[in-house]
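I have been asked to look over a protein record a colleague put together. The record follows directly below this note.
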Amino acid sequence: MFAYLIRRILYAIPILIGVNIITFVLFFVVNSPDDMARMQLGIKRVTPEAIEIWKKEHGYHLPLLYNATVEGLKQITHTIFFTKSVRLFFLQFGASDSGRNIGYDISQRLWPSLAIALPTLILGLIINIQVAFFIALFRGTYLDLWGMVLCIVLMSISTMFYIIGGQYLFSKLLHLVPISGYNTGITAYKFLILPIIIGIIGGIGTGVRWYRTLFLEEVYRDYVRTARAKGLSDNKVMARHVLRNALIPILTNVVAILPLLFLGSLLTENFFGIPGLGSYTIEAISSQDFAIVRTMVFLGSLLYILGLILTDISYTIADPRVRLQ
């Protein structure tokens, strides 16, 4: 099992390096530092002197890969690639184009994102699996049919409808929760209840259909027929065998979305005024702060790869056959 995990971790390293290189090419080759300076200063009536001053203030005046003006190791370290891309591997995010400390901003905005994403994930997972398990237990009945019809209806409704409709009903008409904003401490729950509920409702249709499909794939396997032939009731077969064997794809789905816990929800945080990482990314894109966007792209890739490694670890726990590889 240890060798299996080591191989998975080693596979992840070149993937992360490749993502970093592609990001570097997109931000500094396709879109040059001069282009970034013009976007920040204004495309019209910007002088070459102003562009050079802006580049020097933000560290974009250095050569891309090789600095021939210095000697020794500085020929590599005094480059844009090293200062803007390589340092990301050491979680040295530096300053944004507006001068703010990106690492500090992330440390502050991480917790509001987790406050929304973590309850939404846990509660949504519990509700979706229970409903899907119940529908699969009564497969082929009207309960199964109308349950799937309801899931398709929920899937067909845009997330924007849930957000705007929830704000209008519970905030503007009923005045139960604030329409937007955020506050630290115990009173934060007033601002989190509605986004969490909307996140759960918005994911029920997709989640229930997905987990129901997993359960039905297991129901018709040979080991299930063998268990029924031994006299086990349908309830025991579903609970002891089907649910356990469907655990691996369930773990895959759960761990794959773990990066969203840290990166936050772009739409939800933006519309509810939650100062999380999702709104942080949207604000950076709107203000064309390329340093923040690069950092969030790299952080998202890193978290996704960590999620895949956690998936492999969960496989070794849920499926003994993996440990023999």
DSSP finds 16 helices and no strands in the chain. Residues 151 and 205 are 4 Å apart (CA to CA). The mean pLDDT is 82.
